[in-house]
Task: inverse folding
């Protein structure tokens, strides 16, 4: 238990140090200026006691000597200096507050950029295995706790820390006896802060995690509202929400219970300490006790009165530090989660074969910068320093491929198949048979455990992932449309496509007719993943998006599953035109859509159990025959 506490303490310190280094990297000039201004401001706010001591000493001396002639000038002199210092303090305060606003918001902006950029480099596995709502919590709750820590807690801690050290030095200068009394009281305050603040910190970290779980649950329920209502699952959803919400409530209540009792306890300790210092100072005055101090000043009212004010100031700053503990703990918890995301291992890509534009001269492929629409694989060979070019054709072959999502749980066993350019290969089998997994491996969303996959004779591990994915188009069962116009969404497949190319792609797949009937045609705005369109219309746009990319290999994963029979016939004609001259991998539960495939692969529990064209498989009267005739169900 003790070891865990030490480990957590070290971890918090390392996060704080790393966060400070990050902010310094963002603002190497502005941050030091802010620190200097804060130190100056805190120091100035701590020295009025010195002026008060001098003024009281002058008044006390004049009263004893009965000479008041020089008092006014001397007091005016000290007050003038104090006014100048306060003006400078006010100026530095304005400067650092304005700069802190820039640093805070700028840091949050840069952190959001770093997180989002990191997310773009993460493998698909990360998104598949993490709750989407929890991921969103990084950008909302965790960033907000960081904002509060940077904009409020850090400056306040620095101001209070400098003030405490400055006041402590002044107190030692005036009277060591009274300083020892204050130190004992402050030690008690630190003990209470550690005990109460430690319990608060533990629950604030739990609260942060519970908040992420709650947001994840709400996000999941929002996406599944139709399913919830169809199956009358409202009461169960509310019950599940109440459990998670109750857990958040308990953690937040415990955290704030500790936090709320800390301030009153410290305030009362401070008040008691003030009284004790007053009594001790009065006793020293009455007994004419010798003063022990750095200054060598004798004990007098000019020492005790300023000391009382310094005690109040000292305790107040200690109080300010304790009040920032909760914000700091929450900020550290948020920073830890943010750094966890930033530190996630990016998708590995050791490929060196790239896709380049070429032109043909005398039977040779010559690399060129201009857009020729003729593509080739540029393959540098380290052995002799030569470079070879292989024309992009769409020949895909798998050799003895094994794959497992988790170690020890094999999903695909000994998969061997090939698809020559222009061939249509269909995958058939029950859910979980491995159909979609094969297509994920072709794109290298996941890497195989054993075997080889070759694209145009090149091992895909040698091909850079972005180039490989540009050479493979994909239409998924779940459509994803982005905020923007219909034209923008079609152009997503090829960012430099002209309007004419986008319209041609839409015509090819049969989407042009319904798009032109939309309120603004191709310029109709799509929001909320196409909520203003039917499922079939969304699918047609996603197919057009793949068509405009014009890759030699196309993967259609249940591409027509959400389209009605009439629309399917329209799409199928467009798909047939789209598939001409391309290598196509089709996954479909409707066996009518795979009848015209060159090869049909029947999968079962990650193994190929049958292969052949429709007529061959029907003649075998195996599992495909049973599936096709309805004697055996896919699901």
Result:
């Amino acid at each position: 238990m003790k070891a865990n506490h030490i480990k957590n303490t070290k971890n918090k310190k390392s996060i704080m140090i790393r966060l400070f280094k990050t902010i310094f990297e963002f603002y190497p000039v502005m941050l030091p200026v802010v620190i200097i201004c804060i130190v100056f401001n805190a120091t100035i706010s701590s020295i009025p006691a010195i002026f008060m001591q001098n003024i009281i000493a002058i008044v006390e001396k004049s009263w004893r000597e009965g000479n008041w002639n020089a008092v006014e000038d001397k007091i005016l002199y000290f007050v003038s200096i104090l006014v100048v210092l306060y003006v400078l303090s006010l100026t530095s305060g304005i400067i650092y507050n304005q700069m802190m606003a820039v640093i805070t918001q700028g840091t949050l902006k840069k952190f959001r950029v770093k997180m989002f950029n990191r997310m773009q480099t993460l493998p698909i596995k990360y998104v598949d295995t993490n709750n989407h709502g929890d991921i969103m919590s990084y950008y909302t709750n965790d960033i907000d706790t960081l904002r509060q820590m940077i904009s409020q807690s850090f400056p306040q801690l620095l101001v209070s820390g400098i003030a405490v050290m400055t006041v402590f030095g002044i107190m030692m200068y005036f009277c060591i006896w009274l300083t020892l009394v204050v130190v004992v009281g402050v030690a008690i305050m630190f003990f209470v802060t550690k005990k109460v603040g430690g319990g608060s910190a533990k629950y604030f970290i739990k609260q942060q995690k519970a908040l992420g779980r709650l947001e994840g649950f709400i996000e999941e329920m929002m996406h599944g509202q139709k399913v919830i209502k169809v199956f009358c699952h409202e009461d169960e959803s509310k019950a599940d929400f109440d459990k998670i919400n109750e857990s958040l409530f308990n953690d937040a209540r415990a955290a704030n219970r500790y936090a709320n009792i800390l301030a009153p306890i410290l305030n009362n300790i401070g008040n008691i300490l003030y009284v004790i210092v007053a009594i001790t100072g009065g006793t020293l005055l009455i007994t004419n006790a010798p003063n022990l101090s750095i200054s060598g000043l004798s004990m007098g009212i000019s020492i005790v009165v300023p000391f009382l004010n310094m005690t109040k100031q000292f305790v107040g700053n200690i109080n300010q530090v304790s009040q920032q503990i909760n914000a700091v703990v929450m900020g550290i918890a948020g920073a830890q989660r943010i750094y966890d995301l930033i530190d996630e291992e990016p998708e590995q890509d050791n490929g060196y074969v790239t896709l380049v534009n070429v032109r043909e001269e005398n039977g040779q492929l010559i690399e060129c910068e201009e857009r020729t629409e003729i593509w080739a694989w540029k393959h540098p060979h380290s052995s002799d320093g030569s470079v070879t070019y292989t024309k992009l054709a769409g020949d895909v072959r798998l050799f003895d491929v094994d794959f497992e999502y988790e170690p020890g749980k094999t999903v695909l066993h000994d998969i061997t198949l090939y698809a020559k350019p222009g061939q249509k290969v269909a995958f058939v089998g029950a859910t979980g048979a491995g159909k979609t997994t094969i297509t994920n491996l072709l794109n290298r969303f996941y890497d195989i455990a054993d075997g080889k996959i070759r694209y145009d004779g090149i091992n895909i591990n040698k091909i850079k992932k972005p180039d490989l994915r540009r050479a493979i188009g994909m239409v998924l069962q779940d459509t994803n449309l982005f905020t923007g116009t219909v034209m923008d969404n079609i152009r997503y497949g090829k960012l430099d496509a002209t309007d004419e190319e986008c319209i041609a792609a839409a015509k090819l797949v049969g989407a042009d007719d319904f798009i032109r009937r939309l309120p603004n045609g191709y310029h109709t705005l799509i929001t909320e993943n196409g909520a203003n369109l039917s499922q079939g219309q969304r699918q047609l746009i996603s197919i057009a998006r793949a068509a405009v990319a014009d890759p030699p290999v196309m993967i259609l994963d249940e591409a027509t599953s959400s389209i009605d029979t009439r629309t399917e016939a329209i799409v199928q004609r467009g798909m047939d035109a789209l598939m001409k001259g391309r290598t196509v991998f089709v996954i479909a539960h409707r066996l009518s859509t795979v009848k015209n495939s060159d090869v049909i692969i029947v999968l079962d529990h990650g193994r190929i159990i049958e292969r052949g064209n429709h007529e061959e498989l029907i003649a075998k009267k195996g599992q495909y025959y049973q599936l096709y005739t309805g004697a055996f169900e896919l699901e």
The chain has 20 helices and 16 strands.
